[in-house]
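User: quick one, fold this
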Amino acid sequence: MISYRRGKLHLGGLSARGLAGRFGTPLYVYSRETALERLQSLRGAFKKLSPLVCYALKANSNRSFCRIFADEACGAEVVSGGEILRALSAGFKPGTIVYSGVGKTQEEIRLALRRRILAFNVESREELFAIEREAARLRVVAPVCPRINADIRAGTHPHVATGEAGNKFGVSPEEALALVQDANQSRWLRVAGLQSHLGSQISSLKPYEKLLRSMGELAADLRRRGTVLEFLDIGGGFAVGYEGGGNVLDLRGLSQIAEKTMKACPGARLIVEPGRYLSADAGALLTRALYRKESFGRRFLIVDAAMNDLARPALYGAKHPVWAERKGGKREKTDVVGPVCESADFLARGVWLPKTMPGELLAIAKAGAYGFSMSSQYNSRPRAAEVLIDGGKARVIRVRETMKQIVGLET
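Assistant:
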């Protein structure tokens, strides 16, 4: 995605200087080629199981970016009615969409039922009954999957740990069994499978090993009781390396663990829900330096992108690789910060960069996941434009917001 050619920064094979001149900054730039490479890598690791890959839209929900995966026969994992509509608009087939989330509204449930999605990942008993009521009103059978919280510590940031006791997601295996029993007594509900999601940025196989063992045991118990599952959905959360490479998940190792579980579930298909794994490396945030400043022994480079454009460093302390426009030269220890009036407004702290002058560019790498999708208009800043590079050509897939649009809905 990011490289130097003759000492100059390139994104997706195109000059960063040319992209900034044509589209402005801050600018999200995505590479279709890199996204497809990530998908091929994932499918290669799980080749023996041929899972249904349901791309998690929350990572990057731009319709043109999502279409990359829809065109490759992927499914979608969604968490809102808006994401259902985005998924359908991007070309995902309704029968490949799984719907997660603890707070599905009546309107969202009706939308999903009318569109005949693959399954609802059910996270509480009251939600199950809400789905049943809407299904009865529409006189359709709703496919449901209890979302299991097996209380497994995944060793990730607490804000993105979703499979431990004490957080809002899922139900215990015992509660899941009760949900299945409730569903089996209803003419409007059909138990389609089991689902779980441990969290995000998980680099160890041990949590998945525990999860698959728990899901396999529950699936075997259900089979003995007469409920045969169509699929097991193990979620996503596969770690990608950020600064310095970082730890990544051994997907082949995970596939081997999953093979053992799937053998105990004859006829069931595996579902995985990657988001970050497919999108992070495929995107970068291009930003332009505004000013330099030294204060109390620290060197600051103030750029035109900010925490409203990329919230991960402020929210999680995330460390994204930073690429300067020019390769080489003496490096300086630098804090890369934005214009937003918050001390948390930084894109990188203490990174070593060539001396960067006002007007020069930086690329914040691995920003294709939870970059634009988490961006905001904080400080009344228009959100960035998005560009997709495909076949050596760049096109706008979301135009830059204007000041007029920021206040356009206000009365």
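User: anything notable?
Assistant: Residues 205-224 form the longest helix (20 residues).
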